[in-house]
Design a protein that fits this description.
By secondary structure, the protein is an alpha+beta fold. Helix content is 34%, strand content 21%. The protein has a four-stranded antiparallel β-sheet with strand order 3-2-1-5, with helices on one face. It has a four-stranded antiparallel β-sheet with strand order 4-6-7-8, with helices on both faces. Strand 6 and strand 7 form a beta hairpin. The protein starts with 8 loop residues before the first helix and ends with a helix. Its main location: membrane. It is found in: Cell inner membrane. This is Type II secretion system protein H.
Length: 178
C-alpha cells in the first residue's frame, strides 16, 4: 500500500480563501495606520516650527515671519501649507524674505496625502520679540487620506499657545477634498 503526500485542490482553495480574507482586512488597516503616522508627523513639524519661530523672535529680538513657501525662499501668500513653509527673521519689517534675512526653519512639501491649511486671512504669522503674534488667532486644519472625519484643527492663540480640536464639517471637507 502506497501513501500519497500533498494536499487536495479543495484544501488549496480553502487556504487561498483564508489568505485573501486576511489580506483584505490587513491592507486597509495598514493604510490607515500609515496615514495617521504621516498626519502625526505633519502636526509635529508645524508645532515645532511655531515654537522655533517664537523662540527665535524672543531670543533674537527681531520679528520672525512664518509662511507657506513653494521654493523655500519666499512666501506664497496662500493659505495652503501643504506645499511646505519657511520661518525667517524679518529684519527690515516688510514681511518678505530678503537675501540677508536669515532662515530660521524650512519644511518641504508634506507627504502621504496629508494636507494643512490655515485660516484664509492668516497666510503669514508674525512673531514679535515679546513672543506673541500679531493679528488674531490662527486655525490650521490638518487632514489626510482617511477623510474629513479624521481631520483635526490646531489653533494658535496670539500668546503662542497651541491647542488641538475638531474642525467644522465644512472646514474638514474643504481640507480633505480640495
Amino acid at each position: 500500500m502506497r501513501t500519497e503526500h500533498g494536499f487536495t485542490l479543495i484544501e488549496a482553495l480553502v487556504a487561498l480563501l483564508v489568505s485573501a480574507v486576511l489580506l483584505a482586512v490587513a491592507v486597509p488597516a495598514m493604510s490607515h495606520a500609515v496615514s495617521a503616522a504621516h498626519a502625526g508627523h505633519a502636526r509635529t513639524l508645524i508645532a515645532t516650527t511655531l515654537m522655533d519661530a517664537m523662540r527665535s523672535a524672543t531670543v533674537g529680538g527681531a520679528e520672525v515671519v512664518t509662511c507657506p513657501s513653494l521654493d523655500g525662499l519666499s512666501c506664497t501668500g496662500a493659505a495652503d501649507w501643504t506645499v511646505g513653509w519657511i520661518s525667517f527673521a524679518d529684519i527690515d519689517g516688510n514681511r518678505e524674505r530678503g537675501p540677508y534675512e536669515p532662515l530660521v526653519r524650512r519644511e518641504e512639501q508634506l507627504e502621504g496625502g496629508v494636507k494643512l491649511r490655515s485660516t484664509r486671512g492668516r497666510t503669514r504669522l508674525v512673531f514679535q520679540p515679546g513672543g506673541s503674534t500679531a493679528g488674531s488667532n490662527v486655525t490650521f486644519t490638518l487632514c489626510d487620506k482617511r477623510g474629513p472625519t479624521k481631520a483635526i484643527t490646531l489653533v494658535m492663540a496670539n500668546t503662542g499657545h497651541l491647542r488641538s480640536g475638531r474642525p467644522s464639517t465644512g472646514a474638514a471637507e474643504q481640507c480633505a477634498y480640495y
